[in-house]
Amino acid sequence: MRARDFSTQPRASRGGLALTLVGALALGLAAQQAMTARAELGQAEGQLVEARREVKTLRERAKRTPARSTVEQGTLVRALAATESPPSQVVRDLVELMPSGVRVERLDLAYGREVEVEAQVVARRVADYDDFMERLSGSTRFESVAPGPETREAELRATVHAVYRSGSRR
């Protein structure tokens, strides 16, 4: 048996050293990306706070300042409603309630003191339409849900009326 010499240190393999360097580089890049993402998040949060502050200031100013005409007042009301309930949010909230057998063929949004929704829907089966109406009526985002005219042929086609509630009116 051969005696071991413990006075010398074993040499690291080149492969192990290369893997260690690659790992350290990957860790450094990940840390840099995380710091960049965190900075971008902070910047976005700051912009959101500033935008909310501006909206609040505009609302307060709009409440204090009487409109010069009913046309200006109507425009201001519609602009505030559109700010609180953008069309993309109304569509997103409506789609979340739809069963797979229902699709919207036409959607009209009327902005005024309230956001009035008129949707022409097509359902493959009556049960799908009934499920959609039940979900819509039970939603916290839609109120005054009223079915309109229906035609029942191969598919069920109907018009649905509702009022959309924005998140700030809850």
Tell me briefly what this model is.
Strands 1-2-4-3 form a four-stranded antiparallel sheet. It has helices at residues 14-64, 70-84, 87-96, 126-138, and strands at residues 102-111, 115-123, 142-152, 156-164.
Summary keywords:
4 helices; 52% helix; 23% strand; 4-stranded antiparallel β-sheet; elongated; 2 domains; alpha+beta; Gyrase A, domain 2; 170 residues
Integer count of domains:
2
- Range of helix content: 40-55%
Q: Work out the strand percent.
A: 15-25%
CATH secondary-structure class of the largest domain:
Alpha Beta
Q: Count every helix, treating DSSP H or I runs of 4 or more residues as helices.
A: 4
Distance between the termini: 84 Å
Kindly report the spatial arrangement of strands forming the biggest sheet. 1-2-4-3
Biggest sheet character: 4 strands, antiparallel
Mean pLDDT: 81
CATH architecture of the largest domain: 2-Layer Sandwich
Quick one: how many beta strands? 4
Strand-and-helix sequence, N→C?
A: HHHEEHEE
Q: Radius of gyration over alpha carbons?
A: 30 Å
Task: Let me know the CATH homologous superfamily of the largest domain.
Answer: General secretion pathway protein M, EpsM
Shape label: elongated
Structure classification: alpha+beta
pLDDT under 50 segments (min length 5)?
A: none
